Amino acid sequence: MTNFPNDPDNTLLDYELLNKLVVGIGEVSEITGVPTRKLRYWEQKGIIKSENDIDGSTRKYNYLNIKKIILIKELLEDGFTLEAAAKKVEDRMKNLNDLFNRLSKVKD
Asked: What are the residues whose beta carbons fall under 8 Å from the beta carbon of 72, sequence distance 6 or more?
């Protein structure tokens, strides 16, 4: 967990909680403004991935996929194609993940 001066309890970024956060497709659509039909299409194309329930009927998305959806939507609004936006977001997320991994090793 990261320490922030205005967050004495270190609760601002609870990565463990974020990893457990899973939201249904309807709520994701409301949060992101992306229609459920489009979310299903993006999943079919392999751009995002849902965490289906045991019966496989309900699509649910974790925090990272919600973040991807928001970023892709912003890039689409800026004129990128879906494929270009998805690639750009994937590259950004990989770079951030690599950076955070390096920073965590420096801290230890």
From this structure: 42, 47, 82, 85, 86, 89
CATH number of the CATH domain containing 86: 1.10.1660.10
CB hemisphere CA count around 25 (13 angstroms)? 19
Domain that holds residue 70: 15-107
Comparison of pLDDT for 83 and 105, the residue scoring more: 83
The CA distance from 77 to 85, in Å, is 10
Averaged pLDDT, 36-51? 94
Please state, in angstroms and rounded to a whole number, the distance separating the CA atoms of residues 104 and 97: 11
Structure tokens at 73: 């939507």
pLDDT tens digits, one per residue of 15-33: 677 777 889 999 999 999 9
CA–CA dist 98, 89 (Å, integer): 14
How many Cβ atoms are within 10 Å of 45's Cβ, its own excluded? Answer: 11
